[in-house]
User: Fold Argininosuccinate synthase from Amaricoccus solimangrovi.
Amino acid sequence: MSSPKKVVLAYSGGLDTSIILKWLETEYGCEVVTFTADLGQGEELEPARKKAELLGVKPENIYIEDLREEFVRDFVFPMFRANALYEGQYLLGTSIARPLIAKRLVEIAEATGADAVAHGATGKGNDQVRFELAAYALNPGIRVIAPWREWSLTSRTKLLAFAEENQIPIAKDKRGEAPFSVDANLLHTSSEGKVLEDPSEEAPEYVYQRTVSPESAPNTPEYVEIGFERGDAVSIDGEKLSPAELLTRLNVLGGRHGIGRIDLVEGRFVGMKSRGVYETPGGTILLAAHRGIESITLDRGAAHLKDELMPRYAELIYNGFWFSPEREMLQALIDTSQEHVEGTTRLKLYKGMASVVGRSSPKSLYSEQHVTFEDDAGAYDQKDAAGFIKINALRLRLLGMRARR
Amino acid sequence: MSSPKKVVLAYSGGLDTSIILKWLETEYGCEVVTFTADLGQGEELEPARKKAELLGVKPENIYIEDLREEFVRDFVFPMFRANALYEGQYLLGTSIARPLIAKRLVEIAEATGADAVAHGATGKGNDQVRFELAAYALNPGIRVIAPWREWSLTSRTKLLAFAEENQIPIAKDKRGEAPFSVDANLLHTSSEGKVLEDPSEEAPEYVYQRTVSPESAPNTPEYVEIGFERGDAVSIDGEKLSPAELLTRLNVLGGRHGIGRIDLVEGRFVGMKSRGVYETPGGTILLAAHRGIESITLDRGAAHLKDELMPRYAELIYNGFWFSPEREMLQALIDTSQEHVEGTTRLKLYKGMASVVGRSSPKSLYSEQHVTFEDDAGAYDQKDAAGFIKINALRLRLLGMRARR
Amino acid sequence: MSSPKKVVLAYSGGLDTSIILKWLETEYGCEVVTFTADLGQGEELEPARKKAELLGVKPENIYIEDLREEFVRDFVFPMFRANALYEGQYLLGTSIARPLIAKRLVEIAEATGADAVAHGATGKGNDQVRFELAAYALNPGIRVIAPWREWSLTSRTKLLAFAEENQIPIAKDKRGEAPFSVDANLLHTSSEGKVLEDPSEEAPEYVYQRTVSPESAPNTPEYVEIGFERGDAVSIDGEKLSPAELLTRLNVLGGRHGIGRIDLVEGRFVGMKSRGVYETPGGTILLAAHRGIESITLDRGAAHLKDELMPRYAELIYNGFWFSPEREMLQALIDTSQEHVEGTTRLKLYKGMASVVGRSSPKSLYSEQHVTFEDDAGAYDQKDAAGFIKINALRLRLLGMRARR
Amino acid sequence: MSSPKKVVLAYSGGLDTSIILKWLETEYGCEVVTFTADLGQGEELEPARKKAELLGVKPENIYIEDLREEFVRDFVFPMFRANALYEGQYLLGTSIARPLIAKRLVEIAEATGADAVAHGATGKGNDQVRFELAAYALNPGIRVIAPWREWSLTSRTKLLAFAEENQIPIAKDKRGEAPFSVDANLLHTSSEGKVLEDPSEEAPEYVYQRTVSPESAPNTPEYVEIGFERGDAVSIDGEKLSPAELLTRLNVLGGRHGIGRIDLVEGRFVGMKSRGVYETPGGTILLAAHRGIESITLDRGAAHLKDELMPRYAELIYNGFWFSPEREMLQALIDTSQEHVEGTTRLKLYKGMASVVGRSSPKSLYSEQHVTFEDDAGAYDQKDAAGFIKINALRLRLLGMRARR
Assistant:
């Protein structure tokens, strides 16, 4: 295959992607366009610009963008409509960010006439799959370069040597190896590898970065009310907020109360199991709140169908199939269910827990009149239940008769 | 339909089932056999015997049984192999007890020559369905009597009048109406109705009966290790325990730390939504522990299939279809997956949370060699990932090409 | 419950619904509005008007409507987008007509100020459920009267006596009992009961009404091309046709070639098994054609998801849940998949079979370049397959290693 | 990677695998063990032995086995219990044979101390995946060699040149290229490629190899009765037959009547669509017969669950995951359902169709008493249906009330 001429690189400004930048130039003799996005990871973007300039990238080839609102509105919120949990536990904080980055990489490639995109994900993880499937789906002719799978810089020593050879500044704390690997965005922070590789060992407290420990959280509960419209959160304690503002606010609340820490072993799409520690403070509150408002506004038939399809939907996102027909089909199904998911969930935040304590809605399907132990004024005829049971039992009785024949 | 001659009644010894006992005799002129089971509800059984005798039931017609081991071994544990949660949250504590009671009712009916069984569940709830479907499945010719759907004792006043007319002793605290309705067994305590009927109102603290509030729980975490074999918990902190002993022990631990409270609105099988407050202290720990041990011993393909079918399985139990071919088929599928679910999960209990902090197993599928960021000695060839992605992307690229045509 | 004042009756003009008409007037002293629809059952509607008039129904209370286009466009076609088959075989010809009739019953009730609707389905079948669930969903306050479940006219003799008492004309051939029961509309004709009740006996040839036997069909195959847009058939042999015209045309073709006969035993929603003989000539061709065009235009991910959900979707329609959130959610999912289902399927019709022999589409995903055994000019790198397999195998190899430990 | 020392080759005796045999020796300097199996493909095996000897394989390294009974008993029949159809149509005739061949390859490798296995599947198809996933699952340390993905013999000319250089005899009719590619076993014959590559063109008659055309089939129907026990066919017209005998007999019947031809475009696991023509004469009859006997012996709950999971099960087999936990879990579920699938299905074979015309069973769940239009002696109380509907409608009515608020 011939060498790419121009490559758009997902660039963080850190050491690794700076090495990739230089390696791409060296290896392929190509022009590099850098793309740095603010997805709420909590880092300044301007240093990335400076670093790119320092490494010789032309100003018109440096793309810096704040994607926080798009991220929450078009990726996080649609996913939360599904109550998505991978393997029953993981809120998909890393998975959901990758398609957006890939989308912008491809769009910038098209805008700049680049013939390839590149990313800094390794060959053992899920992220390479997510980046690449999304890129290929959006531009089937694009070329994707994954230096970690290709190069010979297979040890820390070689990487640092390459950096030095290429005048890439190395921050002092990057000389040694990080004790674990981190990914962060507005939805979550994940930590994995190194000190976390033994799944029988409790994760050390210093791994956690955006939540206090439940033990250190306030001794007094805090209450919060989240308002929903069409399945999406729109307000906190009555104040209307944009998607990113709202999630930011929930992160503060959750972080303060030690909410959203999870330590798990998951099955990667590439076949091995890995151990991850995730912090999703705002997302954990949001999931509880969404289930809370659904509990009174979503019909049982709709809710159960959603629940049955959720694991599949979560798996698609985890595996990198955001831009696939089947994810879009499931999304259409889910979104159809959310029309009346409207109202307010009240939660109690305390020592790591976000507990729903109340829900109210103008679209409520909860009928005190029907459920009451008191006189229901004829809303429900208990005798109907006898027929309901008899008919439901008929096939079981026929089976029972056969068993006794 | 002619009157039943002999009826086996699920009898608690309480006021309501005592009224039913007398009503059955009065209404049908039939002989009543009482069946009182210890499912771990935390009440003495001997008073029920005394009460039945007092009401004139012949000694040979009084059945009192301790079913705790059978309950946990044959009902609770198989269900926990599935990680069953109804509507994403409810641990099915009431649902799972009903089939066992129905099974014994039918068996006692057959042993005593009774032609009917009776229960004290109302016509608005799920329990009537669970009792009756199970009874009909096990004995298609049995007759089931549900007095609450039939009689004219439709108010508290009428009930008490009937009790007085029939010399049924009324405990002082039963004169007034209970502020909510309770069901309990070794797995859980549920509370619903009356003061809980407004789902926007936080449940008052006095509703909770077997857990302290997280606020009142100890300020120091406690660690516990649960051992598993073939998917079932078999030990706590290394001590082998029978199923019921183990669950009892976990209930103590969970209750002490405020674990397993849940306040939710659920969709009943009979069509309306209802609000319930559940306490499942031991079960909540058990579920977390089971997911923990599965996370390292269950293959991803097996785990995801289980996750996708779990909502259906939970719905079947909730709806009363324990004794149905489809539940048995799902159970066979689930049990097949559990052969190697063996090892130990370590949990931290603190202020309402049971968090998995470690898992280890002789059957672990977690391979540090494969997942490591370090040199993996050739266990995994990162270049394979490129082909994996390319082939997975092919259909997406064909779609993308069509979109661009 | 008080008597209804005005009832809209699904009225065929036949003896049974004429008896119902009179019975409603007699039993409830209510006014009856008749609704007779042309769904393609192949009967004139004007005799129904005459009959209603003869029975004393006021002209303004006689509704006669041609619903064929609405039936095919809004009910049959959406269902065929899903390739719906109940229990793997039944094309749901009766099931899909009921919601439309119920919808018009309710709408006419609202237009005429009627407080109830009535239908002529028996208490053992599925149709009562379909009529009533649809009616309740569309108007939760409506009352539904099902005379067959209520009245005492429980034998043929009593029915005829009632007819005579009430001056209802009885056609000579209705004196005896029909040898089987028939339902027909543009999609299918079903026959069941009486001579068909023994499922081990072959259905007699005289049961079939709109298809010749394969043995009597032409000895020469006939070819037909069906054009599709967005998943719906729009043309036959290049000629654009409206939905009902198209299905009518396919029925002629299928009927002539003995296509679409099926003899099966199905599980009714009310719990027992029943044997039915169905003729769906046009629908059988349409299903094959739709699968044919999907085979080249629908991505594998989309197609498999549809296939997995189809049984659920078919069950919902069979059970009468057309107007339910879960059917609408599944429809949204299905419809999302059909955007590019466009092109032409060529079929061979011969002796009971409709075989796809060719498919072509401007939206085809079939790529000769990729699939060819010949040189593919680099479209596909076979070495990628090695990586694809290696990564897919990893979890199986980890399992294999465990098994060998 | 170092060279393998000894390789077990799936060897047909044909030109292609003979070339592979020599290529393995040449390329790797390894010893080759040949494995030739009779899976009912209809070819003599002794010529393969002769050919192997001629090519210099040591007698003790030549394995020739008749696997027909194992194939049908342990692979085909379990799959038919599921009514498995890939993409609604394909009976998986090729897919189901691959795991058995892989299993024997691995076992022979272990018996002979070989360190690798090899197969002749190309890099574009599904078979490579099926062979290799099975091999890796059964022996995680095995090495798999797929010459078509590796070698430089990328054209017919080069292949023939290699054959001549290596003294491999070339049958005259192999000089030119075959007009399409064929795979055959006791279950089916598949044809694909070359003349079949344009999916809009009807497959030419000469492609079909084991079925007459429906036009050439007898003008008189033939009836056959298939007996089942525990879900497996055990007899034809009352005569007990072993699995392979039975399928052989059905193939004769089906072939004679032109049954089991299918022409389709399918989605390959490796991402592209391909067109295949399949002949599955006996399997098509067997599937119809199995559905027939299930229709009276399988409960609706069991049947629907099976139907919903079937596409997943079929996909697993198609994709090569026979030896995976999820296939085994689904098999356990399916097998649990088959205990009472016993009795006889009567079919009419005529001009390409296998139509069920009767079913009878000692385990029948069909109850004439319940379904009859006649007096049912109280087996079913039609009034129960009213309650059944009312309760099923409740949630729809609550939705309707909300819509009208």
The longest strand of chain D covers residues 31-38.
